[in-house]
Specification:
Radius of gyration: 18 Å
Structural class: mainly alpha
Low-confidence stretches: none
Helix content: over 70%
Pfam family, one: Sel_put
Distance between the termini: 46 Å
Largest sheet: none
Number of strands: 0
Protein name: YbdD/YjiX family protein
Number of helices: 3
Shape: elongated
Oligomer: single chain
InterPro entries: Sel_put
Order of helices and strands: HHH
Strand content: under 5%
């Protein structure tokens, strides 16, 4: 395997690990929401990112049994 191939594989692995980490931490939740909204909700626009995180936090506070801590 050549050096460029090794570097390419290392970059691809790093991107995959970052994607997994963001998913576990919930960092990509807003983008997931936007994708879902675009596919299923034709009326009205999506929430802003600020509105989305406020709504998500409010729902978590209203339903604490869904969390580990």
């Amino acid at each position: 395997m050549t050096v460029p191939e090794v570097l390419h594989r290392a970059r691809a692995t790093a991107r995959e690990l970052a994607w997994i980490f963001k998913g576990v931490m919930g960092e990509n939740a807003y983008q997931t929401y936007l994708d879902h909204h675009e596919r299923t909700h034709t009326e009205g626009g999506p929430m802003t990112e600020r509105e989305f995180w406020r709504d998500k936090t409010d729902r978590q506070e209203a339903n604490p049994e869904g969390r580990c801590c």
